[in-house]
Structures are given as structure tokens and as C-alpha cells.
């Protein structure tokens, strides 16, 4: 298992992973970025674009970063309950082990939409690739950061992680970003700790902790709840709650969302509206669904053979799920500030946040379904 230096190496690996395949992505017309009328039509939804109610593209492929996690639960619910079909869409979902691989699928043309963390739209724009989020799934990252009582029995503060190894699902993941923020806030510098990719599978993460390959873990549920229940980790920072997210990031931090190349959003507004409709309908269903309803709806494999664990995990992340698919205006600013605090490649002055997201589609869906 390879070990990577914190922050500096993480940043390089993150950017390198996202650049793979990006060179094949056609450059968009300069008019997309400078033509006020085209950009306004894409982001503000002029009536002319919505005169046609049928999706321009009925068959849509969504690449997903770990679909079986709660991070992407709204997508699974909308799929399982047939909400995409109700909107006249045939949606295929391709599941990947990391956001970098999911992004590559869009870049290479094998997927139209990506379901992953909002922060990737910022990284892509820093590389002159314009992607736009159009419906939010999570209003908190759902990541928990814990230390191993076995490997760090005397842990007292973040500085105790100096020289230690931290397990994350993958380099460049939201879990790695959250861990980097916590380390930075605790006074650790680049290279003071190391990241190790352990994936999101329970067996691999547990083995890494017990064998001493990692001393701490930053990951999502249901894995982190399982590790808590087994006494394998002691949680020291938690963004599964809105309160914990505010403590780490200083504001609302957008998590998983559906985003696509800005050119796709501009050319397919009715398709994006249909997707947003299905997602917001799923979010509304989740507002009143009980744990038993969730268990009956998601695939059996998601439960990891332990329904009690799955329910406990759902209860921990429930408030982090978006209510209506809309990004709070301050959320993208929080994400940009967070990334720029430990990633020198992100220049706040060069990022146009207005091009990274639009609430037009989610707002229309919210009004339609009274979410």
C-alpha cells in the first residue's frame, strides 16, 4: 500500500488524476464564457429555452463516485422509485471507486453527468474546464475523522498526528479534503502527515487499522459508524452533522451534486430540468421516509449484511441530506475558501463561482413538487 505525503503530494495526485482524460474533452467556444446572452440562458433559464418540455436527450449516463454510500443516497432513491422514468428519461448509472475515475468517464464521453462532490467543479475550473452543478444532494460532506485507540492510545490533539498515516478512500476525495482541513486547523503543515488510500470497503479499512498501516481514518458512512461501533476509531471531527460542518469549514459546505460540462447544460436545459425534477422528488421523499422505508428501497447489497448498522448510519447523516436540491449562495464560497486554504493551485481570484452552479433547475423542481 503506497503512502503519499499530506497536502503537497495529495494536491499533485489529485490534479494529475483529474487531468487524465481531460485533454480529450473538447474546448468550449469562447462565446460560452464571454457571450452574456448564452451564459444567461444557461444559468438563468430564459423562457425561450423552456418552450420545449421534452428532454433534448432522453438517454443519459451518470458516472458516480461510490453509489452505495449515503453520499449518493438521493440518486439511488430517485432511481429505485422510478422518478427518472417518470420524467421521460432512460438513465444509466456507472459506478466508480473514486471521483477522479467518475470525472474521467465524463471527459472521455462515456458519461454525460457526474455525481460527486461540488469541490470538483472548482478544481476543474482552475484547469480551464467549465463544469456546472445543477442539483445538490448533500448539504454537508458526511465525512467523519477518527483516530485509532490501538495505534494512538495517548492521542490528545491534532499535533499528535504529526508523522502518522491517515486512511482515506482515495487521494482527491472529499474525505481527504476534510482531513486536510482538520490537519491545517490543528497547526500541521504539508508533509507533517501522510495519506494512504484504503478505499471504502469495510474489510480493507478495518485491516489497515488493525495492521497499523494507518493510524487514523477519514471516511464516510456506513463504514465510519461500523468502525465506531467496533471501537476501532475515536471520532475527533465530524461533518455528518450541520454543526460539525460549521466547525470544520466555517460555513455550509456543499457535498455531492449532479454536475456536467457547462456546454451540456446550455444545450440540454430540458434534460437537466428533468434530472433535477427526479432528484428533488427523491429528496422530498427522503424528508419523511423512515429508516424502514430506506431499507426497503435501496439494494440489499447496500446494507452490508447488517440492517441495524445501516439504520444507525442513516440516522447520523440524515440532516446532511439536501431538502430541495438548492445550493445556499454562501456554500460555494465556503468550498472555495476551504480548498484555497491548503491547495496552492486554487486561486480564489481566478475562480468564477457563478459558473460552477445554478439553482434555476432545482428551484423550478422545488416549486413543482412543493419540496
From TrEMBL:
Recorded GO CC terms: periplasmic space
InterPro entries linked to this entry: SsuA/THI5
BP GO annotations: alkanesulfonate transmembrane transport
Keywords: Signal
PANTHER family: ALIPHATIC SULFONATES-BINDING PROTEIN-RELATED (PTHR30024), TAURINE-BINDING PERIPLASMIC PROTEIN (PTHR30024:SF47)
Recorded family membership: Belongs to the bacterial solute-binding protein SsuA/TauA family.
Protein name in UniProt: Putative signal peptide protein
Annotated source species: Polaromonas naphthalenivorans (strain CJ2)
Species lineage: Bacteria, Pseudomonadati, Pseudomonadota, Betaproteobacteria, Burkholderiales
Amino acid at each position: 500500500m503506497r503512502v503519499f505525503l499530506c497536502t503537497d503530494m495529495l494536491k499533485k495526485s489529485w490534479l494529475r488524476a483529474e487531468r487524465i482524460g481531460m485533454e480529450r474533452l473538447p474546448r468550449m467556444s469562447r462565446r460560452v464564457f464571454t457571450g452574456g446572452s448564452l451564459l444567461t440562458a444557461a444559468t438563468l433559464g430564459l423562457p425561450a429555452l423552456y418552450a420545449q418540455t421534452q428532454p433534448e436527450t432522453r438517454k443519459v449516463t451518470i458516472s458516480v463516485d461510490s453509489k452505495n454510500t449515503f453520499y449518493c443516497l438521493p440518486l439511488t432513491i430517485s432511481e429505485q422509485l422510478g422518478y427518472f422514468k417518470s420524467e421521460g428519461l432512460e438513465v444509466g448509472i456507472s459506478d466508480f471507486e473514486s471521483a477522479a475515475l467518475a470525472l474521467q468517464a465524463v471527459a472521455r464521453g462515456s458519461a454525460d453527468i457526474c455525481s460527486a462532490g461540488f469541490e470538483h467543479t472548482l478544481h476543474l475550473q482552475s484547469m480551464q474546464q467549465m463544469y456546472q452543478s445543477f442539483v445538490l444532494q448533500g448539504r454537508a460532506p458526511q465525512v467523519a475523522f477518527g483516530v485509532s485507540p490501538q495505534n494512538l492510545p495517548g492521542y490528545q490533539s491534532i499535533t499528535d498526528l504529526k508523522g502518522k498515516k491517515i486512511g482515506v478512500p482515495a487521494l482527491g476525495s472529499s474525505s481527504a479534503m476534510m482531513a486536510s482541513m482538520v490537519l491545517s486547523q490543528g497547526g500541521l503543515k504539508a508533509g507533517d502527515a501522510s495519506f494512504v488510500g484504503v478505499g471504502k470497503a469495510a474489510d480493507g479499512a478495518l485491516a489497515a487499522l488493525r495492521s497499523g498501516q494507518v493510524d487514523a481514518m477519514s471516511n464516510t458512512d456506513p463504514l465510519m459508524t461500523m468502525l465506531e461501533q467496533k471501537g476501532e476509531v475515536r471520532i475527533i471531527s465530524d461533518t455528518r452533522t450541520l454543526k460539525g460542518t460549521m466547525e470544520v469549514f466555517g460555513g455550509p459546505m456543499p457535498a455531492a451534486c449532479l454536475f456536467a460540462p457547462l456546454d451540456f447544460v446550455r444545450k440540454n436545459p430540458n434534460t437537466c430540468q428533468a434530472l433535477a425534477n427526479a432528484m428533488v422528488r427523491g429528496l422530498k421523499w427522503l424528508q419523511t421516509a423512515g429508516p424502514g422505508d430506506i431499507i426497503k428501497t435501496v439494494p440489499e447489497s447496500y446494507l452490508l449484511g447488517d440492517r441495524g448498522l445501516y439504520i444507525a448510519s442513516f440516522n447520523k447523516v440524515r440532516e446532511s441530506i439536501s431538502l430541495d436540491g438548492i445550493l445556499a449562495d454562501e456554500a460555494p464560497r465556503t468550498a472555495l475558501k476551504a480548498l484555497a486554504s491548503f491547495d496552492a493551485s486554487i486561486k480564489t481570484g481566478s475562480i468564477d463561482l457563478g459558473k460552477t452552479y445554478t439553482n434555476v433547475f432545482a428551484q423550478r423542481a422545488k416549486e413543482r413538487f412543493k419540496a
